[in-house]
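Q: Please design a sequence for this.
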């Protein structure tokens, strides 16, 4: 048990350090996304979270750096239209600490966390978060989720402030297969999970909920860059009647006339990856990464709409015999042949590149290559109970402005590829590795 927990922590930290190693030293104070803190905050936030929950909450140990614990305790998630509206978080310091000081704090926390594994195990009978190392799983998953945050921040960073790792694979280019409508018959979908059914899950995953889903049809593959380019170049992207009123207001205020991941130069479209600028014609088969607002407008243009969370589950996990799968492809655990996830590369591949990952109905790429937007507002399932040691983890975002995403992106770790896992973002947040597909009716 001790070695297994230590190995999980060390693997997570190694990957975090690898991401930070792509930054030039002067980049740590950069803020490529105005709605996020600079990189140095995350250098401190990840160990602070570990200390607060493991050494502080579970073991009740006094802090060796309370000012850092507080400063780095929680990030921001402001309203895109009104950055002053945000959940509670520490005041932003007038000046961030020196990088070497924050790294020393990180290293001391990491050492303390590794040394605490046996002490936490001794509390298993008295503390549900200590039982079976649940608190360590929470800390590891928190770190893994923030690795994706860091990578889409790197994507928005100026080229001179970062360096492409030599080990990253070459880009996979090519076209997506022809899109077709896949009928999914009426049936039931199980969302969430039972607490005893997972070694660890976040509070918004519990308890399970069974939903009756009417028959519908769903796109066989996500919308590609080439598909979305047609939408943009037809002029439909600029037609207000295709957008919800609040989405159109955001689009106009933001000055958007194309997705965040695209740019136009000398009349040619390009797609920005984390480290390179590629002609859009070369990556037309990649899934289109867009905000929920843009996805809604496209779906209306095509005469469809976005799936609900329950419809996604029915398409991904349902079977003709009425049973449900643990994964879209089969009961097998996630593996490279099942999709583009788990940090094997930091970029998409052409949609439909993993034919062995199709669901029972023949719907492709429901896991990997991009989170998928649903039009379901993020909320707790009936019987929801906040996480005892972190009650605001989910509840601060039950505001009708955050929406559920399912699946996984290229930089989602395999630990999060579980049926009950739910991601969520604001509908007008354009930086996520998030794609979509359309459903009817």
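A: Design:
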């Amino acid at each position: 048990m001790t070695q297994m927990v230590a190995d999980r922590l060390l693997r997570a930290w190694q990957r975090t350090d690898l991401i930070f190693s792509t930054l030039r030293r002067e980049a740590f104070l950069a803020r490529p996304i105005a709605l996020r803190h600079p990189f140095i905050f995350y250098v401190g936030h990840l160990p602070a979270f570990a200390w607060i929950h493991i050494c502080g909450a579970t073991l009740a140990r006094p802090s060796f750096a309370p000012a850092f614990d507080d400063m780095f305790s929680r990030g921001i998630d402001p309203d895109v239209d009104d950055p002053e509206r945000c959940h509670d978080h520490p005041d932003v310091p007038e000046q961030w600490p020196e990088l070497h000081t924050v790294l020393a704090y990180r290293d001391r926390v990491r050492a303390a966390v590794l040394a605490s594994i046996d002490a936490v195990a001794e509390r298993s009978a008295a503390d549900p978060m200590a039982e079976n190392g649940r608190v360590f799983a929470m800390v590891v998953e928190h770190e893994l989720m923030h690795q994706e945050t860091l990578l889409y921040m790197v994507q928005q960073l100026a080229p001179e402030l970062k360096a492409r790792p030599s080990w990253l694979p070459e880009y996979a280019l090519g076209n997506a297969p022809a899109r077709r409508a896949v009928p999914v018959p009426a049936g039931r979908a199980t969302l969430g999970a039972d607490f005893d059914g997972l070694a660890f899950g976040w509070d918004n995953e519990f308890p399970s909920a069974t939903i009756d889903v009417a028959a519908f049809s769903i796109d066989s593959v996500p919308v590609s860059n080439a598909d979305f380019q047609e939408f943009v170049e037809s002029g439909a992207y600029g037609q207000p009647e295709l957008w919800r009123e609040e989405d159109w207001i955001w689009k106009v205020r933001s000055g958007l006339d194309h997705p965040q991941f695209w740019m136009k130069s000398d009349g040619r479209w390009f797609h920005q990856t984390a480290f390179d600028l590629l002609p859009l014609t070369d990556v037309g088969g990649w899934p289109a990464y867009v905000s929920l607002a843009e996805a809604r407008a496209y779906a209306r243009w095509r005469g469809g709409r976005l799936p609900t969370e329950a419809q996604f589950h029915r398409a991904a996990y349902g079977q003709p015999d009425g049973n449900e799968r643990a994964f879209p492809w089969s009961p097998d655990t996630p593996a490279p042949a099942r999709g583009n996830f788990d940090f094997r590369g930091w970029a998409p591949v052409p949609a439909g590149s993993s034919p062995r990952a199709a669901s029972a109905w023949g719907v492709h790429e429901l896991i990997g290559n991009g989170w998928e937007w649903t039009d379901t507002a993020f909320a707790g399932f009936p019987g929801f109970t906040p996480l005892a040691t972190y009650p605001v983890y989910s509840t601060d975002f039950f505001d009708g402005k955050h929406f559920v995403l399912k699946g996984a992106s290229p930089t989602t770790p395999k630990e999060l590829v579980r049926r009950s896992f739910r991601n969520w973002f604001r509908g007008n947040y354009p930086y996520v590795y998030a794609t979509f597909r359309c459903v009817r009716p």
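Q: Thanks. Anything notable?
A: The chain has a mean pLDDT of 95. The longest strand covers residues 370-377.
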